[in-house]
Each structure stands twice: as C-alpha cells, then as structure tokens.
Amino acid sequence: MVGSTEHPLRYALVNETHARPFQTCIAPERVWHYAVLDGQGDTRARRHVTALCDRYGVAPPPVDANHYAVDLGKMRLKWEQHTEFASFTFFLHGDFDAPFGAPLEEFLPKEWLDETPGALLVASTVTLLPKEAPPPSAETLGKNFFMESVATSVVSGDSAQIWTDFRVHADGHSRILIHNRSMPDRKAGRIVQRLLEIETYRLVALLGLPLAREASAKITEIDSALAELTQGMTEPEQAERDAGTLRSLTRLSADIEQLATDTAFRFGASRAYYALVKARVAELREKRIEGFQTIEEFVDRRLSPAIRTCESTDNRIDDLSRRATRTANLMRTRVDFALQQQNQQLLTSMERRAGLQLRLQQTVEGLSVAAVTYYAVGLLGYIVKGGKAFLPGLGSDVALAVATPIIMGLVWSVLRRYRRKIQKESD
Q1: Where along the chain do its domains lie?
Q2: Strand bridging mode 119-129 / 85-93
Q3: CA distances from 162 to 65, 142, 155, 191, 286 (A)
Q4: Closest to 201 (Cα-Cα) out of 100, 271, 104, 252
Q5: What is the pLDDT of residues 72-114, one digit of tens each?
Q6: Cα–Cα distance measured from residue 300 to residue 278, given in angstroms and rounded to the nearest whole number
C-alpha cells in the first residue's frame, strides 16, 4: 500500500460524494415533500423522525446522521437536514383515483404531522403516472392546475413529460404531475428529486427578496444622510462643525456595517440556491411544447429578477461602505490639514515669542553692563579716596572719569564672550 499513514477524513470525504442517494420511484406513485425552517439545527428534526420510527418499530436515524431513508411499511420516508432547513419526503406506491386527491394525513398519524418542528416553507405533492396510463386530458389539467400559470415540457430525452404551475392550491400544496413515458425506476426517482429540489431551492432563494426590499429603504435613508454630510463638508464654516460631522459619519458607518452584517448571509445564500436551481433545471434537459412555458422560462422570468434585486441591494450596501470610507478619509484629511495649520500658527507664535525674549535679553544685557560698571566704578571710587593718603596729588574725579569707559569696555567684552560661548554650546 502506498504511504505509511492514511488521512483521517479519507472515507468521510468519499462517503460524502455518495450521500443523499436518489430514491427509486415505481409508477404509479405519489410523493409528498415538506421543507421546514428550523433555527435549532438538526436536533429537533432528528428527534421527530426518531419518534415516527418508534411508532412503526423501525430503526431510527443515527445520532450523527443528517440524512436518512427508512421503509415504514406502506410508505417510505426520506429525511434530509440542510444548513437552514430540514426536508421530509414521503413516497407511497399504489393506484389512486385522482392525482392529487388523498392528503398525507390519511396515511400518517395526524398528531405526528402537527408536531413537525420549524416553520413550513415548502409543501409539494408529486404524482407519477405509469407508462401505460394515458397522458392527462385538458379537463384533468384544468381541474388540478391554474392553466394560465402551467409550465410543461418533455424532459430527459423524451422519457417523461411534466406539468406544474408553481402555485399553492387549496390543500396548501404545490403540484407536480409526471407522465412516465420510458423512464426506468431509478431515473424516475432522479427526476422527482430534481423537481422537488427546484421547488425547494426556489423558495429558499426567494427568502432574500423581502430582506432586500426592507434594506432598500434603509439604504436610501443612509444614502441621503451620507450625501448631505459630504456636501456639507464643502461649506466654509464646516471646520467649526467637524466634531459633530465626525460623530454623524461614525454613526452612519456603524449603520452600514450593521446592515451588511444583517444581509450578507441571506444574500449569499440566495445566490447559492439560485445557482442550484439553475443547475437542476439544466439537468432536466427540457424540450419545449408549443403554447406552454418551460420550467426554465418560468425561473428566468420570475426568479431571476428577484435574485438580481438581492444582488443589486448587496452592491448598493458595498457602494455605501466604500463611499463612507472615502468620506471618512476626506474628513481625516480636513482634520489633518487643520492640525497642520494650527501647528504652523503655534510655531510662528513661538518664534515670535523667542524673538521678543532675545530682544529683551539684549536689553537686559545692556542694563547689566551699566549696572556692573556702576558698581565697579563705585568700588574704584572708594579705592581712590583711600589712596589720597599715599598719593596726595591724585585727583579722584579725573581717575574715575578715565576708569569708567575702561571698566565698561571690560564688562561688555566679558559678557559678550560669555554669551558667545553659551550660544556655541547650544548650537
């Protein structure tokens, strides 16, 4: 065997590609399909399936299973747990009088059906007519469908013809009628599964449309407020209101991010489910019947605009986020520019004060020279007066007059040299 170790997920990944197998459908057969939204995950749905298995004495689903198929005797059940919803599909083989006459309550405990967890989103009935049965007449179609909405086509290489109107009827179910022309049982099961997935994924994809409409009003409100803020930033007196503008911009940015958070998952899921619907429709390989719309045409005309609305709303939220970011950058530039102006004014003021201090220092320096000279001459006067006893001919006035400029020059020279030394050390 190649390799000394085996990846721990090898078998899980291989089994995942074979998960949720198609059921075999042997005409005549009726299928009831339900999809419920359950925010509590697979726990309640699994318990509900386990309760039904206990009623019929069959093995319940494993505790870690997210899909399960079981034979209940007269009926078969297929349960699947998806990210957002759980689906319950019941298969009943046998003849019937009317394609959509008998409700599921005639074959399953009503109290169990009433206790199904979650909010019902999809309820659909599929009827599979055998090869030997004649195609449904116009009268039969008129009794079971809204003819103005009927979509019909030949699918899968002319092996079957399908009819549906994508409407909810009086029994609360949408209806799909299939006439098996030449399909083997397994292929019939695949066609039934694809049609049910189209119906289910179509409605789950549409969950984004009400949210898009609700978000659209908020986007318009935020867009107007953001445009008003941006326009107001050009006003001359706006600099005095920058703090309030910044608070408003912060609040709008928070609203945009909250809006993006509230819609991101739903819009992303709508795009993903829409892609699944398109893929399942393509797998049918429809052939058009003159005078009727195909399922693909119905999806393109009714579902595609809703998804484009979701995408447009998502793009508008992204555009709002980018505009808010640009406005914040502009506001930041304004604040930085205002700070630079304030700093420049502060530096100019400091330079002016430094010049005033220098002139004051020079003035004080001149006064200091005069003061030191005054005190030095005074001291010299005492010396001259005291020296008359030794030099009787010495005139004190003449001596002080001669000494005063000499002393002043010496003091000024010393102070100047000291100031230059300090300036040199500072530089």
Answers
A1: 16-197, 208-286+294-345, 354-426
A2: unpaired
A3: 33, 15, 8, 10, 10
A4: 271
A5: 998 999 999 998 999 999 999 999 989 998 899 999 999 999 9
A6: 9
